[in-house]
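Predict the structure of Protein SIEVE ELEMENT OCCLUSION B.
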Amino acid sequence: MLVNPFELGDSHIRDMAYHTHLNDNATCDTHVLYTTVSTLLYKNRLPETGSSSFQPGFHTLKLISTQMINATSGVQYVHQTTMWILEQLKNYSWDAKALLTLAAFAFEIHRIESLESPWTNEVQSRWKVPPIATNLVAWVMEALEHIWEWLKLSSIGYNTEDVPSLSDAFNEIPLLVYWILASLAASVANIIASSDYQLSDFIDRLSSIDNNLKEHLSLIKQEIDGFEDYLRRKEMFSQTKDGVSMLRNLCEPTPEFPRVQVYDGSTKTKKGFEVFKQKHVLLYFSEFNSIDSEILFLNYIHVRLEENPKEVIKGFKKEDFKILWIPIVDNMDDSAKIKLRFETLKSYIRCYAVEHFSKLPGIRLIREKLNYTGKPIMPVLTPKGDIMNEDAKDLIFQWGIEAFPFRKFDGEDLSLKWKWFWDVLKKLSLGIQLEGGKYIFIYQGKNREWNQKLAFELDKIKAHETIKRADCVIEHYQLGKNDHGAISSFWKEIEIKKETKKASKLHEVLDYEIQDKMESLLRLKNDPQGWVILSKGSNVKVLGGMKPMFETMMNFEMWKDRVLQIEGFDIALKEYYDAQAEDDAAEEVKPTPPNGKMPLIREPPNGEKPQQIIFIKPPKGEKSICDRICSGIKDFFHQCCACATD
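Done. Here is the predicted structure for Protein SIEVE ELEMENT OCCLUSION B.
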């Protein structure tokens, strides 16, 4: 069935044209053929082209021109003729298909001495060549040049992974060749056979596709420049011997024309990368998505490094470490919005930040060499440009300034402090995953009510808007929830770990520190309401009682703002929890003045029957037992054990 090509989509026509193409085995000396065609059509126009060994076959050209002349009125016949030509030329390259058809067109009007714009009146009258045909031929010649430009660029040898627009441009070529052939067929039919095709419709379609190809060619050149720049930066990355050069390589457009400035959050001034000379730099790569909570994190490290800056730890001075936030921008359309956002962030940034609001010149290196995948990372750069730690973010998140100087093995040493604890929990199969910078609550109340109340409050906090803004991930696990025997197994394993550690003959500082932590944990065992442990990753931050922790969670609205004001959720929680635990302890030991009648009642564990302590009034005229015991130190104990008298 004959179809109207103007009613078909580009993808449909592209597929039809491409399916006729078999291979490029048939040779065609496009240089010689183009010279011949341009001599017939235009004088003195000979663009540079490739070479092979083709001699134009007049028989083939005559078949094509005859078929074009016979394309009677009706665009469906132009489509039929175009598909026939494509089938006849299935073994030729795409540029050869277009050039051979143009040659057939030129030979059909070979008596014309020149086809300059405008053509001579005598020639136009003789062949009935409308002026619009001149424009059509000009578009065809320009389109051919663009096809050859693509061939030249693609022959350099770049992969489409490095220059993806090579593939996009090629996608236009079968479609462009189709409309070149269709336009020439319609034009020949009009000139020779007096058909009445609207060549302007063909030119519109041809020019539109050719413009698309030109845009792709422009992108190809940009991508080639970008790839060559990447190769240059890649070589510099492997050869750089200082940190400042490394930073410039990643962030500045070219070494000759640096345009990137560094904002100093401490002094609110702008500086160059020279400020990091002879410094270790904690590079923080991240997008703007959750930068508010991340700046709190960066400010926390900055403040800790500023405390006693001359202090030497493990052979490193704290003042020799600086923090640099390098924003990652992928969407160029957001540059203006991001710039405004950065101006707002300046008010509370304390560390350094790169003022760059478009795609970083070294982004490909950052992805390949520093393993940036879209999530924030913090590699540590030495003054010599080496990477001391590929990503210290989780290490610092868990251990803070304790992890200084932030080498990978510094974190491994710190993790030994609580390794024994996590080894025990691993045996209990709670499914806890320590990776990913999470806050983990592990708890066990003395009865179901305490467990349910705490779990309810924790779930409320997890869904709170403040926690979302702070980008906190909170998980909680009840020990013994599905297996009550896990509770006794847990404490039994802790006791074994403790005795094993005490029997160790190493007696290193770390061993004593671990023993202290074991003792602190074992003291929670007999808490009357239960116990709660909070960890930040593998770093246990709080060993607490159930009652003060529950009250802390229940009163989250009272301390929620501190989460966004100070270093993090765990710091804000511990701040409130310590005050709450102190109040609870004071309440427990506060005496009730005895009057001979009022009992002092302590809350019993596990719902047992309350026990009463009764203060008995002594006989008249006799001193109380308390008076006799406290004789000599009565003034010291007066407030806490005064006895009733008449």
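Residues 409-587 form one domain.
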